[in-house]
Amino acid sequence: MDYLTLLEATLPDLIVVVALFAALGVDYGLCQGKSPHERGRIAGEVSSIGLLLALCCLAFQWMQGSVFEIAEGQLNLDATGLAAKAIVYGLTLAVIRFATRHCPTTHASEYHALILLSALGMGFLATTENLLLAFVALELVSLSLYALVAFKTSSPQSAEAGLKYFAFGGVASAFFVFGVSYLYGATGSLDIGTWSDWSDRSTLFALGLVFVLVGLGFKVAVVPFHLWAPDVYQSAPTPVAAWVASGSKVASVFFLVKLIAALPPGPETATMIFAPLATAAIFSMLIGNLGALRQSNLKRLLAYASIANGGYLLIGLLAGSPDGYAASIFYVVVYALANVGAFGVIGLLSDRMKGDGRLEDFSGSWRRHPGLSFAFLLFLLSSAGIPPLAGFVGKYYLFYSAFDQVEMSYVLGELLSGRNGWLVFLVCLALVMSVISLYYYVLALKAFLVSEDESPHLDDDEGISPGIKLCVFALALLVLILGVYPGPFMAFLQAAF
Amino acid sequence: MNEEILFYLFSTLMLFGGSAVVLSRNPVNAALYMILALVSLAVLFLTLDAFFLAALQVLVYAGAVMVLFLFVIMMLDVDLRERSRPNIMAAALGLVTTGAVVAILLTWVGEGSTIRPSVGSVPTPGNPLAFVTGSKAFGYALLTKYMLPIQVAGFLLLVAMVGAILLGRRTKLKSSEGKDGS
Questions:
Q1: Which residues is B127 bridged to in the sheet?
Q2: What is the CATH number of domain B1-78?
Q3: Using the beta-carbon criterion (under 8 Å), do B148 and A74 form an inter-chain contact?
């Protein structure tokens, strides 16, 4: 590997690095006399410009058809890799726009720099096939997110959420690196791309794999590693909650899918992790959806919904087919778009008035912000899986890929035994749970669209700039387009496996 | 044969140190036991001919990191009484999990498979492992093959620094905000 290739391959990341140092430097050097709000705005502009340049650079590499592979699968930047990175940076751009409007403390430039640093880690995590780089990138993501979650220094809840996230995350990282050491011992390679031509499946390999899955399960917030999610989503600054729900999840799922897809072929491998993953999926759907029913805080409600969504996307992995892997990625991308949008709207409507996101706080939003409320309607209906929005298509692909793997039989006993039985049960449960989820999503929408505003003094429209509104509408449009016309994106993802 | 005796001696010491870290009530004692575990591990590296790794282990972990640990423990002045109530549920769950992992590993030993040597880096007289021969080969590997992870680890340190400064300023900020409010 020569340095020039490395430089060329990581050019978009380097632009992000320059942007984050520029955001810090401009703030420290030129903006000392300015008001915190102004400084936040400048840091946000610098970060956004950097991300836009990085996205342009990615588009240029994509058009040139560049394929970069760094030794031992450390980076695998083919068309899918570049797209994964572009998705992560695109989400970052949206989060940065939301974060610019309202910084919880006076440290605006560090706020943006930490978001960019975690984006950097997510970019590497989504494109690597090397366990070592994956661990370092995962740690980069986690550490920045711990600091970001605890960023609201004036709020004890934020500190508590940060500590909870840190304690869980530290244990999960320890599991991950321990698992990596076992996998390295069993296979002799850090490159997961070499697993397929390796036939000897030892118990050590299975154990290592389970440990690595624990580490990733924490990031995706599947049961039983979900306990941090409600507190973090509720108490973190709202743009950070959006970021935890979107970027971190997308990057982890990209790596998770690669890991599962790289498993050596054969029925033994499938059974090795099938039962643990299926159990996690079942309990995630149950606890996520039933937990969400009881919430009166909108952010907490979305946190439980995200646990449930973690359960849904495991179904695609369990299907174990290229279609299933592609469906999982499609679903998580769509989910992330809708969630960034939803949290963005929540942040726009509630951060200024010091609300902590209770459902009543949003009553009558329809009258004050018809556009934003309509976008919010689209985001939530997409998450609930209402056609023609993207969430519906995502769920359809997921469930179809699982049913596709069921070996059809007219004997009920055969249909419901072993792997078949698991898949049939999972899909049925997911369908029932999707119906249940409609209740709490509609409950949230009721607050927005139907309830009359009883506190007219909260009217506060001046702070929402057209740029941020444009960002929300762009996300809503994407959710709509991916729902109406999902074919090309799905075909692109399917081509990767 | 001699190496085997050394292995059993120091792995026993390491296991003893490791369990003592978890079991001892006093955090300072726990930290000292951890040094024992880490130094025993360094000796195990020595028996594998990984001299450079052993030196790093002693210098970085047993030396620098543990001094920081002790420093923080003494600064924070941890309340000992709070630790003296063990959580039975957590202990049981931990024991079950550990037992399961040990059982799985024993199955693996029973299977008779072995650890695979790293692809392309089986130590031979002409081509020893990078971390065995010394700092030069080690550094060479870090700056060529593992360039990218090293760079990312650099950003990891940057995040740790920024995060620590931000969160460390908490008390000062909070008190000043309180003054503003009153």
A1: B124
A2: 1.20.120.1200
A3: yes
